[in-house]
Amino acid sequence: MVAPVTGKPLILYLTSTTRSIGALLVQEVDGTERPVYYISRKVHGAEERYTAIERHCLALVFTAQKLRHYFLSFPIQIITKCDPVRFLLSRPALTGRVARWLLALAEFDISCVTPKAIKCQALAELLAQFPSGQCEPLEDCLPGDGFEALATSTDEQHWTLSFDGAAGSGSGGAGVVLQTEEGDRVHLAYKLDFPCSNNEAEYEALILGLIAAKERGVKHLRIAGDSKLVVLQTEGIYALKEPTLAPYRTTVQKLMKFFKGVSIIHKPRSENRFLDALATLGARTEFGEDRACIEIVKMFEPSAVEDFAEPTEDWRGSIKIQLVTGVGHLSTAELSSFIVLHGELYHRGPQGWLARCICAKEAEEVLDRIHIDNCADNEIALYRRIHRQGYYWPTMKKEADLITKNCTRCSLYMAQPECLMANTDNQEVDWRQVYIDYLREGALPTERAESARVVRGARRFFLEKGLLFRRTLDGMPQVCVDKEQAEEVLAKTHGT
């Protein structure tokens, strides 16, 4: 071996077999080729299934990585029976490892020559028959990857979390995909090694996805799932009645607090096939040219049983202790509306809605947040909105009514139909007529404020056989009456 002379190109001989690859780097001085360096190694794993031309390209890329200092300092002339560089450049569409190989070679001055006599090719082929026993896989990084990763980590990116769950016989599966703004994806699959329903599996997938995003330092998250029930219950649009799902929604709400910005949308099932394949771990999984590495983690207990620290001295303490131990001074009537699930105290509303009982500090945060989100929209009372989104504390109605009363915007834009019914004593016109005209003909009052009030209020009314009905919060219809009919109903009810 000799040190290369500056100013003269280096000559590279490549060789490959079904079991090894090798290369010999030489430099011609005074008509004599002097060896500078030689390397060889075994092929292993997926490389054993490469075609002959791909193994030849593998030898070139491996040599360029191992002898990078020579490739950067000298022009390289490849002498070989095939042209791996031409093979790379002639591909109509470069994907996967072929594209990465081409990018890895782009920084070097490489050319292919065909001399009259191939002097050292036999030596290169001989060296390849005695490969190194060490496993030396290709480096998967490209020039500049380190700087790009550093720049990306300093910015607060918006990630997308897609999730799906599937239940089987005695177990289930969960699939999660985390995607950056640049399109980079992280695929995760979990085996739920415990009995669970489809809805529980969907919640498990969402919780595990949130945990994975939190561990990666994600701050801004967009969530998409094909379970309409889970998405709308998380948003607070659907009420929660199933006791088994209550701990899951509680865990989701707690995990969402770790993110600066988070939103959730419903995705059609037709757009969720890959996640469905991850969740079911079935034969329908399809990949592109390259293999996909999927990390499968077995979970031995539900994620909702994770212990979160919370204050020990609050209004919930005595209720929870008496429900668990049976020791306490509270009556059966006082305890009938409460239930303990996985260590959490829940309140069951008149319609069967389950709401997590929260302490005073969290209640203040929830009250402010939901009031800000729904300010001036009084179609549903504020305390009912809070309860529907899954929260409860004993004074929630009093505090919600007080904050609504003291809010200027809520006072100016009150649009409850009950207000109309309470003021009909001083009106000669039937209060129902504006809603009947709007629902039947689309007619609205001339004043803009009155018109907007009618449109908002009409969402809870409908016509049936010429009669006006109003939907209650639980969806039951109520017939609407005028002043005289109301007096008759009151007289019959109270016996006067």
UniProtKB/TrEMBL annotation:
Pfam (any one): RVT_3
Domain of life, per lineage: Eukaryota
Domain RNase H type-1: 155-284
Keyword annotations of the record: Endonuclease, Hydrolase, Nuclease, Nucleotidyltransferase, RNA-directed DNA polymerase, Transferase
Xref: InterPro entries: DNA/RNA_pol_sf, RNaseH-like_sf, RNaseH_domain, RNaseH_sf, RT_RNaseH
GO molecular function ontology, one term from the record: nucleic acid binding
Name of this chain's protein: RNase H type-1 domain-containing protein
Species the sequence originates in: Rhododendron griersonianum
